[in-house]
Specification:
Blueprint lengths: L2 H7 L7 E2 L2 E2 L1 E2 L10 H14 L9 H20 L8 E4 L2 H16 L5 E5 L8 H10 L2 E5 L9 H7 L4 E7 L11 H10 L3 E5 L11 H4 L3 E5 L10 E5 L1 H6 L10 E4 L4 E3 L13 H17 L1 H20 L4 E3 L9 E6 L4 H10 L2 E2 L1 E3 L4 H6 L5 E5 L6 H18 L1
Parallel strand pairs: 3-15, 5-6, 5-7, 7-8, 8-9
Antiparallel strand pairs: 1-2, 4-10, 9-10, 11-12, 13-14, 14-17, 16-17
Helix pairs in contact: 2-10, 3-10, 4-5, 11-14, 12-14
Bound molecules: pyridoxal-5'-phosphate.
């Protein structure tokens, strides 16, 4: 069987109809579909190994602990972390960035300090910094982007002044798909001694990421955007920095000893994992890492790049369709508008043809504003898509224009 079919067959949710039309899923930037191996790993845990971790000496608890810690090792290896302890399980990229903002930034920032982000950030990489600015008196600066959806690197360099303490940016934009030059951006930030945070939520499901090579201080990921379950993600941080940090939340498992007089924190990474974590989610994420490694990033990237070029061709051939921020280095996002038709109406008509896309501001209101828009249509690709999906997208968009345009 050709690889394409093997991949498509691995995703049970893709094999259904919406009304009488086969589902065409083009919303992977919102969340990817889950391969059977991930679903099986989660079910297997609940059916056979369900127990709390780290605390029990009985067999189930040990099995659950081994599976959970095994998943940590799988993530560390996939992303090139120096050691598994550099991987902290959290709910997703949102929680990872909030952990950095509250656990790292808040105790270290004061009036006069600056946090530098970019104009293309997801709200998850804007609002946590706004909160910490309010708490500490620090201020937020924003690097503009160019018309082609890339970061204005000249402006970035100018904005990197000595007052900048933290620089935080997306590896890949969720709204327009731009792949940012994160290694270069981190190196420039290091020159002024800033701490670097990369929001990798949209990267790891598409690109080979090596945090040691990028040399960032923190890297945030979301399990559900890389074929894993919802409600699980990771914060990767340099070990020395994690050791210096105080915990963010208190509770069980993050302590070594508790008395009313004094409490001693557990070691990294456990001091950041208070309470019972999402054990099944972590195990599912470990299975998602196995899936990615089985397919291989090379295959994923080349397939998605072919589909992206094809999809751009399909949409550009339609009168009235305009691609937004279609940069050269793009991780499979087709952002577009349709003349005289509101994105929500396009999305509704497309759904009636079984085509699932995302419409709206994509949790990136400042980016929409940059392009003079309030909303766009976004078709986002993954390894299970094919050119037929994009032909269906094109036909459905033409229908939307015929009906509403
Ligand atoms: C670029 C980016 N950052 C952060 C997030 C937040 O991820 P989560 O909601 O999984 O925490 C998303 C989700 O869409 C995203 O696309």
């Amino acid at each position: 069987m050709v690889l394409e079919q093997v991949i498509a067959d691995a995703f049970p949710a893709l094999h259904q109809t919406i009304g009488d039309k086969p589902l065409i899923y083009l919303d992977s930037a919102a969340t990817t579909q889950k391969p059977q191996c991930v679903i099986d790993a989660v079910s297997h845990y609940y059916e056979h190994d369900n127990a709390n971790i780290h605390r029990g000496i009985h067999t189930l608890s040990m099995r659950a602990t081994n599976a959970y810690e095994g998943a940590r090792k799988r993530v560390a290896t996939l992303l090139g972390a120096s050691r598994p302890e550099e991987v902290i399980f959290v709910r997703g990229a949102t929680e990872a960035i909030n952990l950095i903002a509250q656990g790292f930034a808040r105790p270290r920032l004061a009036q006069g300090d600056e946090i530098l982000i970019t104009e293309m950030e997801h709200h998850s990489n804007i609002v946590p910094w706004q909160i910490v600015c309010k708490q500490t008196g620090a201020s937020l600066k924003v690097t503009p982007i160019l018309d082609d959806g890339t970061i204005d690197m000249d402006a970035y360099k100018e904005l990197l002044t000595p007052d900048v303490s933290i620089v935080s940016f997306a590896h890949v934009s969720n709204a327009i798909g731009t792949i940012n030059p994160v290694k270069e951006m981190c190196a420039l930030a290091k020159e002024i001694g800033a701490t670097t945070v990369v929001d990798g939520a949209q990267a790891v499901g598409h690109l080979h990421v090596d945090v040691s090579d990028i040399d960032c201080d923190f890297y945030a990921i979301s399990g559900h955007k890389m074929f894993g379950p919802t409600g699980i993600g990771c914060l990767l941080g340099k070990y020395d920095i994690l050791q210096e940090m105080d915990p963010w939340q208190g509770g069980g498992d993050m302590i070594l000893a508790v008395s009313f007089e004094e409490t001693v924190w557990n070691a990294v990474p456990f001091k950041f994992e208070a309470g019972t974590p999402n054990i099944a989610g972590a195990i599912g994420l470990g299975a998602a890492v196995n899936f990615i490694e089985k397919i291989g990033y090379e295959t994923m990237e080349s397939k998605e790049q072919e589909l992206l070029a094809y999809g751009r061709g399909v949409l550009q051939a339609i009168d009235g369709v305009k691609l937004i921020g279609a940069s050269e280095h793009n991780a499979g996002v087709l952002a577009f508008t349709v003349d005289k038709v509101h994105p929500h109406d396009v999305g509704t008509i497309l759904d009636s043809f079984g085509v699932a896309i995302r419409t709206g501001n994509h949790c990136a209101e400042p980016l929409m504003k940059r392009f003079g828009l309030t909303a766009t249509c976004r078709a986002s690709l993954s390894v299970y898509n094919n050119t037929d999906d994009l032909d269906c997208l094109g036909s459905a968009v033409k229908e939307a224009i015929r009906i509403l345009g």
